[in-house]
Amino acid sequence: MASVALAASILLAGCDTDQVSLATNAKANQPVPPKLLAAMVEKDMDLQSPILVRLFKQEAELEVWKQTRSGQFALLKTYPICRWSGELGPKMRQGDRQAPEGFYTITPGLMNPNSNYYLAINTGFPNAYDRANGRTGAFLMIHGDCSSAGCYAMTDEQIAEIYALARESFFGGQRSFQVQAYPFRMTPLNMARHRNNPNMPFWKMLKEGYDHFEVTRLQPKVDVCDKRYVFDAEPPANASPVNASAFRFTPAGRCPVYQVPQEIADEVAAKTKRDAAETATLIARGTPMAPVRTGTDGGMHPVFVAKLNPQIIRDTDGTVRTVIESSAPGTIPPTVNPPREPGAVTMAGTPSPAAQPHGSFALASSESKPAPAARPAAETGNMFTRLFSSDDRPARPSAGQSEGGFTASVSRLFGRNEEKKPPAVPTPTPKPVQAARAPAPASPPAAASQPAAKPQAAEAPAAEANVRTSAANGTALLPGAQPVVPAGTFESRWSNWR
After folding, report:
1. Coil/strand/helix, residue 156
2. DSSP labels for 427-450?
3. Distance of CA 17 to CAs 65, 93, 394, 461, Å?
4. Can you list the positions of beta strands (E) in 4-140?
5. Is 168 helix (H, G, I), strand (E, B) or coil?
6. What is d(CA 412, CA 403) in angstroms, rounded to the nearest whole number?
7. What is the distance, to the nearest Å, from the Cα of residue 170 to the centroid of all Cα atoms in its chain?
8. In the chain, where the domains are located
9. What are the residues facing 470 on neighbouring strands?
10. How far is it between the farthest Cα atoms of the chain?
């Protein structure tokens, strides 16, 4: 009973409910696909070279960047995001269904090979910046299953590729990789369109880190002080030994004097100036402002929207056929909530929220799909699973945890024994139309037939360490801070295997 009480006491609202186990399974050990291997050869990349991930909500895209033999990063592949939840803007509190925005450090212990959502990578929210600013939440993931309650959800096939790329980078010696999560691509046009959004001060801070990566193609070193992000900070070159040794700060502490390599500082300043001038020109020309959405719940890439909303075509001979977009990368579960077109009417007769611009859409329903079963942990593992075996990894909730009462939580905690298998996508019933090519009206299922909500879960703070080699000389003195180093390091996990 004490164990049950302890398990129930750690239930927190979040997206994922997975318990990390060290079980060896085929999902976590799938090889990198041949097409990706060929792309690496073409782009002068090694299989086990470091990676970096960028996420964009508005465009609903996930980018995987990989280090080339030159030492810089190049774009390997862009994945359309199947589902993300919330609105544009950072996650503020537990239960708000917001997918996080910011800079996150992924260590081997944040990789979940036995996820209820096929495979999962924990973003590590809340990071040092989030905690310093009082933001709460738990286990916000990049995972499969195309279902999200605060996460970035891919198809199972997509997350298998992303997971394999991350796994190989750890095998190659990368101690951690960076996930940069943005509301949109930080272009002058997007900054002009969202100029009235109350999150703009936060987004301008994110853009500084975005620009550091854009001009260097190197993973920026991210620190937090004075409750804000600072990038590529290092002690001043002329600092005395006493001052250099004092270059340690807490995320909420006051920023000391620091330097950014002069070459980086100059290039970022020049880019910032150019972008600001272009943004001002776009505003002066009357670029319309994007509405500040409230009450919406995330979006989905148009390639998945096209597949979930098939088109009905009447051929010249009178034959009516359903054409489903076949280019969607991966299997979409039939219970996923598709986006609605602007002005669509719900089953209750009320208009649904309009679609978000530029690839961000409102959802048909806020309900989630049924909770899949958990896979029991095995006692043995391979080289990669043993990488996670250190006891200092962040605590994880059990596979059945959800946002609910004690009784419901305990029953979910112990109620599932089998692994989820994604069902096939059903073929929609065609409906003849007079137009040559017109979209079929979406008919959401009745409320009574909606499946039970997918469990939500807690998260543990992620590691805050980033590893990056400084690439320039010179100084630009600014207030800054040093990296936050977690207690559970890559070295402690790796040493278990060695």
Report:
1. helix
2. PPPP---SSSEEEPPP-PPPGGGP
3. 28, 18, 14, 15
4. 51-56, 61-67, 73-80, 83-84, 102-106, 111-112, 120-122
5. helix
6. 10
7. 19
8. 1-439+460-498
9. none
10. 86
Q: Is the distance from CB of 363 to CB of 344 less than 8 angstroms?
A: no
Partners of residue 177 on adjacent β-strands: 106
* Token pair for 413: 């905690």
User: pLDDT by residue for the chain (498 residues), tens digit each?
Assistant: 444 443 443 334 456 445 444 346 899 999 999 999 999 999 999 999 999 999 999 999 999 999 999 999 999 999 999 999 999 999 999 999 999 999 999 999 999 999 999 999 999 999 999 999 999 998 999 999 998 888 999 999 999 999 999 999 999 999 999 999 999 999 999 999 999 999 999 999 999 999 999 999 999 999 999 999 999 999 888 877 666 667 777 899 998 888 999 999 999 999 999 999 999 999 999 999 998 876 678 889 989 988 887 777 776 666 777 766 667 899 998 888 765 544 443 333 333 333 333 333 333 333 333 444 444 333 334 444 444 433 333 334 334 333 333 333 333 333 333 334 444 444 444 444 343 344 444 444 443 334 444 444 444 333 333 333 344 444 444 444 333 334 443 334 443 443
Q: What is d(CA 111, CA 103) in angstroms, rounded to the nearest whole number? A: 17
Q: Catalytic amino acids? A: 143, 151
Token representation of residue 326: 């076949």
Burial category of 494 from C-beta neighbours within 10 Å (exposed 0-12, middle 13-18, buried 19 and up) = middle
Beta-carbon contacts of 103 under 8 Å, excluding residues fewer than 6 positions away, are 127, 129, 178, 179, 180, 181, 206, 209, 220, 222, 229
What phi and psi, each to the nearest 5 degrees, are found at residue 263?
Answer: -60, -45
Whether 140 contacts 100, CB under 8 Å: yes
C-alpha 430/C-alpha 320 separation (Å) is: 8
> For residue 408, what are its two tokens?
């419901």
Prediction pTM value: 0.68
Amino acid of residue 276: A
| 3-class SS of residue 219 | coil
Would you call the peptide bond into 439 cis, given omega within 30 degrees of 0 as the criterion?
A: no
Which string of DSSP letters, residue by residue, matches 297-342?
--B--HHHHHHHSPEEEE-TTS-EEEE-----SSPPPTTS-PBPPT
Write the single-letter amino acid at 173. G
